[in-house]
Amino acid sequence: MRKEINADYLLWERLKKGDTSAFNELYGKYADILFSFGMVYSGDKEYVKDCIHDLFFELFKYRKNLSETNSIRNYLFKSLKRKVRSKQKGRLQLIYTAESLEWNDSGEGDGGEDLLQDDIQKLAKAIQQLPERQQEALNLRFIVELPYSEVASIMDISLESVRTLVYRSVKTLREDLKDNQITVLFYVMRSY
Amino acid sequence: MTNKTSKKRAEDILIDDDLLSHPKGLQAIPELDEAELLFANNIRKALKTQRKRIDEREQNELQDRLNRSIRQHQKRRRIGQISSIAAILLIALAVVSLVETNRSEFLRFASNFSVDPQAGQTKLILEKGNDLKITDKEASIKYSSITNSIEVNSIQQNTKTTLAAEMNLHTLLVPFGKRTKITLSDSSIVWVNSGSKLVYPSRFDDNKREVYLEGAAIFDVSHRADQPFYVYTDDLDVRVLGTMFAVSAYPDDETVNTVLERGKVELKYKGTRLIGYEKDILTPGTKASYSPEDGAMNHSQVNTRNYTSWKDGYVFLEKKTLGYIVKKIARYYNVEIHVEDEQLASETFSGLLDLRNNANQILEIISEVINIDVEKDHDRIIIKRKQKQ
């Protein structure tokens, strides 16, 4: 992690000097995760792409005025969140789709290929009943797979508060799914 | 971290970074309750499937778009800077009375050497037939009265030649496809464009500064009230004090164009008079088109940037036909370009061309914006309308 921060720091310094190759490196490094991250806040693919375009363009445009930062990564996440949410005021758009399962067919072994689409839809429905902040924390931690410390920083709350949000959300899910006699996620245990 | 005595629920597992990052996965931790563990694991996996990805093609497209935005931004900024400098330096100067010149003598000397547009090298002819040759596309030549020398700088060569003590006329010949920026002994700067000839003295006279031009050049003349600056062409003379302007007087063009960016110049030409000359004052932002054929002089307001931007390595085009653009590229790069479709040639476009690119790159950039195919046939470049798929 330390090493990565240092690499980012050097990129940042080069960028501030107007080095376009540093700029392209930065884009190559973060485009993928930023897109996934942006899609947590909006269901509109093209819109998220526009926001990423604006984010990087402004980064270049105002590079001389950029303050010192140890974490470009954190800066990028927070700025993108602000951008995505600024125009489409209001709620999180957490859209769960069965089709996104497809890419997992060829993916690594720990994907969700052994989960039934139907089960995922049920889980998705249950998640959508959760309070917004809980959804956000859960999604950032498990969809985008950001560590808790980053989720906390992005949501501007303490590490403990993030854990509490996720704790409550999982507890609710567990209870909901049991109460509704949906054995979804227990059912799959056979596959081990 | 793990506690064997109290049962861990799924929520306990999922908020524990240490457990989540266990190298062998959650199922490898024996003390966890199997049902809770699997529930936790499955939530985690189900959510993971929901990650939306940007594929490689989309990622590249977005990167291209981003780089285009940046390039455009940089060009816009460059123009902004140039025009603000021009605005600051805009000086209105009094026009002093015309001093008789030894114009005809000057012109006679200028006809000694002629520019060969197809020559592969830029040539600087000094006294006694002493020649300096420059093969690079762009070069900068500097006359310095302090070090008493001529410095030639380009990518491939850096030379310093000592100036002869006496005053001599020097000739600069720039063929098609090349350009030269020259700083004269009074520190006036002249950007000499492709296919042009500039004749000037190695040191200027105390009373006046005189140069001869055939082709196109941009002058940024240092201000010396007591030493006016004259640009002679075959059909028209320009008298200046301190100013920035462009003159284009190609022998195969029908008109001599003078565009003034700042300052003040006086034009002197035969016009329609039988005896004597007509004189005109040019104001900034104006183009004077003189047709020696019928003596007609036309003034029009123009965007001076369109005429001077080539010195900064780009061309600003405002509603120009593809045919015009292609002709310009052909002259600038000394390449042959053919537009196959006449209708296509007459379509108009606006934008900036970065002349630091080569002709192929420029055409590629154009083809990105408009629907054309660029093909290469030996030395010829052929432009076609894109076939519909």
TrEMBL record, chain A:
GO biological process terms held by the UniProt record: DNA-templated transcription initiation
Record-linked SUPFAM superfamilies: Sigma2 domain of RNA polymerase sigma factors, Sigma3 and sigma4 domains of RNA polymerase sigma factors
InterPro entries xrefs: RNA_pol_sigma-70-like, RNA_pol_sigma-70_dom, RNA_pol_sigma70_r4_t2, RNA_pol_sigma_r2, RNA_pol_sigma_r3/r4-like, WH-like_DNA-bd_sf
Family stated for the protein in its record: Belongs to the sigma-70 factor family. ECF subfamily.
RNA polymerase sigma factor 70 region 4 type domain residues: 121-173
Listed Pfam families: Sigma70_r4_2
Name the record gives this protein: RNA polymerase sigma factor, sigma-70 family
Any GO MF annotation of the entry: sigma factor activity
Swiss-Prot/TrEMBL keywords: Sigma factor, Transcription, Transcription regulation
NCBIfam families per the UniProt record, alphabetical: sigma70-ECF
TrEMBL record, chain B:
Organism annotation: Sunxiuqinia elliptica
Pfam family, one: FecR_C
Domain of life: Bacteria
Domain FecR protein: 176-266
Name of protein: FecR family protein
Span of domain Protein FecR C-terminal: 316-383
Molecular functions per Gene Ontology: sigma factor antagonist activity
TM regions (residue ranges): 79-99
InterPro entries: FecR, FecR_C, Ferrdict_sens_TM
Keywords for the protein's UniProt record, in alphabetical order: Membrane, Transmembrane, Transmembrane helix
